[in-house]
Design a protein that fits this description.
The N and C termini lie far apart (62 Å). About 2% of the residues have low confidence. By secondary structure, the protein is an alpha+beta fold. Strands 1, 2, 3, 4, 5, 6, 7, 8 and 9 form a 9-stranded mixed β-sheet that branches. A 4-stranded antiparallel β-sheet has the order 12-13-18-17, with helices on one face. Strands 14-15-16 form a 3-stranded antiparallel β-sheet. A hairpin with a 2-residue loop joins β15 and β16. Helices cover 41% and strands 21% of the residues.
């Protein structure tokens, strides 16, 4: 295999699938459109959920893209060789078009002919079947016909080779995963790609959505079957080049070199320094994309902003390990902007905002540390014995943002030992409560396709129009949306709280639009035509050549749907709360009665 850069790999993948009659579409935002189940786009399929559920995509039934994603569930694992919080997902899609035969043949062709992997070292897993759905012999036969060695085809259970549904009901089906045999010795006679011993490295996955699971738990075949093929750019790039970690690829090597220059330390000199450099580089890259996102995420104490703040402050904490100033993050962010601007222009355009937000967070964190030090000294005087309670250490972290590593260092300097077990217990309890709260907060939503959610979705369009009209600001735009069947939440850019009179005027404007009883009209047109027609939207390559424009009363907006059929279906609109979301962003919660 030849050495490859990230730019070459992206182009190779997209050109390959464009050659198979796939329309290449742009990446969507890191904040999912009207999906209240998650804070971030965590997979390539997220922006395409409406189309996987049956909506017609403006670009057609064969698509390919490189989608930016964020996953923070493994944030504490970042620092090892492979975990990243931000990543790019190479994806190709069949929306009721081709199925297993073509998908598998093209996957094999790309991996073997284009990437240059050896057929002898190429392995796959397929669904082994269970009492609910049969063994996926079709996929295994397709792999054999494509050229895969029979000895390298493994049948595994539902845990390893089944996808979905995303909720309790919906499309689902078997998947088939692709691996490279590293040549490492087998851990046992039964060694296969599921054992995790390191002999096999996953490089991609084909998901076949061929069933629909209903509310009774029955699986019925779908009339229109979909294919979702995905490959992680960072991981694949690492394997192709024979690197031991993703941080050796061209996506990170320049950032690591800059940290070496700033700190005078060497990457790889010891585990602590290596992990610190990886964490700083990873978190800064993620923060750069969050701050530069088309929906302009800002650090805050809630939702996406909370995750962003946590990443920035965790990176700053590890700056202390390297002995570099917090401003190192701003330096690295500029380098990441240089690297990614040719691929994602919005990152280059947001350079000033990214730097300003990082500098502001640097000042806030400095004050947090100062406040935390004062609180540490205060609680220390009340602790009997020489063990610093883990619960107290967690309170310092949770309330004041004071890193537990600093608590441990300060405690040791004063002859105390930190109760790590107590801290971990308090932290786990906090995670469980947060998870339960999040599940309650985000349960249901527009992704369920329900009528109530669709009506509230239409109401958000009218709300956006009403805000621009009442506040006299055409630049007001959506900065986030969260819809459940019970209510809508709408974030928008505005520098101050709304007055009672303005809130009443916004409500009246929306209700006047509803009372007019106008049909909801959907049209397909080019991006240029949408822009010229006055449609609201964040224009860019993310939409593709053709877009859907929904006209709802006086609102005209680019959107994927679904919506009510007529504004008269919405009922009475009422704002229940108006508050701050983050700096320069306001939040409205409203209901339909």
């Amino acid at each position: 295999m030849r050495k490859m850069t990230s730019e070459q790999l992206r182009k190779l993948y997209l050109d390959f699938y464009a050659g198979k009659a796939h329309a290449v579409i742009g990446s969507a935002s890191l904040i999912p459109e009207n999906d209240p189940t998650v804070l971030f786009t965590t997979a390539g399929m997220h922006p395409l959920v409406p189309y996987l559920l049956g909506e017609k995509h403006p670009a057609g039934s064969r698509l390919a893209d490189v989608q930016i994603c964020v996953r923070t569930g493994d944030i504490d694992e970042v620092g090892d060789a492979s975990h990243c919080t931000f990543f790019e997902m190479l994806g190709s899609w069949s929306l009721g078009d081709y199925f297993k035969k073509d998908a598998i043949a093209w996957s094999y062709e790309f991996v073997i002919d284009k990437l240059g992997f050896s057929p002898d070292k190429f392995a796959v897993t397929v669904f082994g079947g269970d009492e609910v759905c049969p063994r996926d012999e079709e996929s295994a036969d397709c792999w054999r016909r494509a050229g895969a060695k029979d000895k390298n085809i493994f049948f595994l259970g539902r845990k390893h080779n089944w996808w979905g549904p995303a909720g309790t009901t919906g499309p689902c089906g078997p998947d088939t995963e692709m691996f490279v045999d590293t040549g490492a010795p087998a851990c046992s006679e039964s060694c296969d790609p599921s054992c995790g011993c390191g002999k096999y490295l996953e490089i991609g996955n084909d998901v076949f959505m061929q069933y629909f699971k209903d509310a009774e738990g029955n699986f019925r075949p779908l009339e229109k079957k979909n294919v979702d093929q995905g490959m992680g750019l960072e991981r694949l790039l690492c394997i192709i080049n024979g690197y031991s970690s993703v941080y050796e690829t061209d996506l990170f090597d320049f950032a690591i070199a800059k940290l070496e220059e700033l700190s005078g330390r060497k990457y790889g000199e010891d585990e602590e320094i290596t992990a610190a450099m990886r964490i700083i580089a990873d978190h800064t890259r993620t923060a750069t994309f969050m701050l530069g996102d088309v929906k302009a995420i800002s650090p805050s104490n809630v939702d996406q902003g909370y995750v962003l703040r946590r990443l920035i402050r965790r990176a700053m904490r590890y700056c202390r390990v390297l002995g570099v100033d917090f401003s190192a993050l701003t330096v690295l962010a500029e380098l990441f902007a240089d690297k990614y601007a040719p691929v994602y222009p919005n990152i280059g355009e947001a350079r000033g905002r990214i730097a300003a937000e990082l500098d502001a967070e640097k000042e806030k964190f400095a004050r947090t540390i100062e406040q935390g030090l004062k609180e540490f000294d205060k609680v220390l005087s009340h602790i009997p014995g020489k063990v610093f309670p883990g619960k107290t250490a967690f309170r310092l972290y949770d309330t004041f943002g004071f890193p537990v590593e600093m608590t441990a260092e300060l405690a040791a300097e004063r002859g105390y030992t930190l109760d790590n077990e107590g801290y971990e217990k308090a932290f786990r309890e906090h995670q469980e409560k947060s998870k339960a709260g999040a599940e309650q907060k985000f349960k249901g939503g527009l992704a369920d396709g329900g009528e109530a959610s669709a009506r509230l979705h239409s109401a958000t369009h009218l709300l956006g129009y009403a805000l621009r009209k009442v506040l006299g600001d055409e630049n007001i735009a959506q900065r986030g949306s969260n819809i459940t069947p019970e209510r809508l939440r709408f974030d928008f850019n505005f520098p101050r709280p709304l007055t009672a009179e303005e809130i009443a005027a916004v409500e009246k404007t929306v209700n006047d639009e509803i009372a007019a009883g106008t049909p909801v009209v959907c049209e397909e047109m080019s991006v240029g035509e949408a822009r010229d027609s006055g449609a609201v939207g964040v224009f860019g390559d993310r939409y593709g050549d053709v877009v859907k424009v929904y006209t709802i009363g006086h609102s005209r907006e680019i959107c994927g749907g679904p919506h009510a059929a007529n504004t008269a279906e919405l009922g009475k609109f009422r704002i229940v709360k108006e508050q701050s979301s983050s700096a320069g962003v306001r939040r409205i919660k409203a209901v339909l009665e």
